[in-house]
Amino acid sequence: MLLMPKLSATLLLCASLFGATDAEVITFLKKGIGSNPSISNLDVDISGKQNVSGMTGWQAYFVTIEADVKQGAENRHINQNGTYFVNGDTLAPELVNLKTGERYNDTIAPSFSSAYYTKANLVSGESTAAHKVAIFSDPLCPFCRRYAPEALSYMAKYPKTFAVYYYHFPLTQLHPASVALTKAAIAADQNGVDNVTLKMYQVDIDPNEKDEQKIVDAFNKTFKLKLSVADLRRPSVLKHSLFGNPIILNQ
Question: Which of 107, 125, 155 is the last residue of a domain?
């Protein structure tokens, strides 16, 4: 959902912040985005900053936006990352180099700590490969189901070029079934099953399914396994972590 960037783009183009501090940037974003009556429980945080190469005085602010959004009769919880640009007294939702046409929103990203490239998350390639690639994915995300298998298969062919690190990232609010499906994938991987990361995208299950037994049955059908719901509740599965913190697998 790209609701938050669209809202903030409308609100921020005329912003004047007079050399704002980080706290003032957060306050300004909260005031602008929070003015939408469909948004509640809004939280904004700055996760990092980076100088914009070639654009003197500009800094990219990496912002995390979390909120509840009412869409018709439905309430949805979103957690998004956005990038804003600050130069002295000016804040803008996008920045373009007029000489080169480069849109910095598309090319600037926060630094990724080398500490996250762990052996436990290496799914293909050699750790000394020329390029390290980190994939965060929900196995029931429509885009991930189209993109991830192709990307994983391609990069696995070039182990000296790509070291691929995979992180389970179930989007529990959007695809409730992804939680149990992720647990099943972790359990199968711990059992020594090959190609779990790649094949789990083939599991045919309604993303809104909450019955763990049905999800396990669908997983077993794809992998020809006999996992049980109890396997999903193993301490080793529930303690599986992302960036050293337990991911949302104990629901």
Answer: 107
- pLDDT tens track for 81-130: 788 999 888 888 889 888 888 888 878 877 777 777 888 889 999 999 99
In terms of Cβ atoms closer than 10 Å to its own Cβ (0-12, 13-18, 19+), residue 94 is middle
**What 3-state class would DSSP assign to 136?**
strand
Full-model pTM: 0.60
Q: Which of 62, 90, 107 is the last residue of a domain?
A: 107
251 assigned to some structural domain: no
CA distance 213 to 204: 14
Domain that includes residue 169, residue range: 114-246
Q: Is 208 exposed, middle or buried (0-12, 13-18, 19+ CB in 10 A)?
A: exposed
- Calculate the CA 99 to chain-centre distance: 32
